[in-house]
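B., you asked whether I could sanity-check this one before it goes into the benchmark set. Here's the sequence:
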Amino acid sequence: MEGTGKIRQHLRISGSVQGVGFRYRAQQAAGMLGVTGWVKNNWDDTVEMEAQGSREQIDDLLTMVNRGTYVEIERIDRKNIPLEEHETGFRVRD
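And here's what the prediction gave me:
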């Protein structure tokens, strides 16, 4: 089945994404979906994330976070990067 393989993406997300619970929603959604990786706030008011799972799981994660109150994703820059073979869980970074 095409499209179900595991990928890892580096994402830079802009919009109303800081001070609105974005990182904690991302962590909760990732746990529900089985996505691993991390998320952190950047100095330029963007959020940076690495997410590992299927493309569908990563898309679902972003959809779930964007449904949150006050969250409004305006732009996502994505880049495929190498898998982290032994990663477990999804964490919020400072």
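One thing to flag: The CA atoms of residues 36 and 89 lie 5 Å apart. Otherwise nothing jumped out at me.
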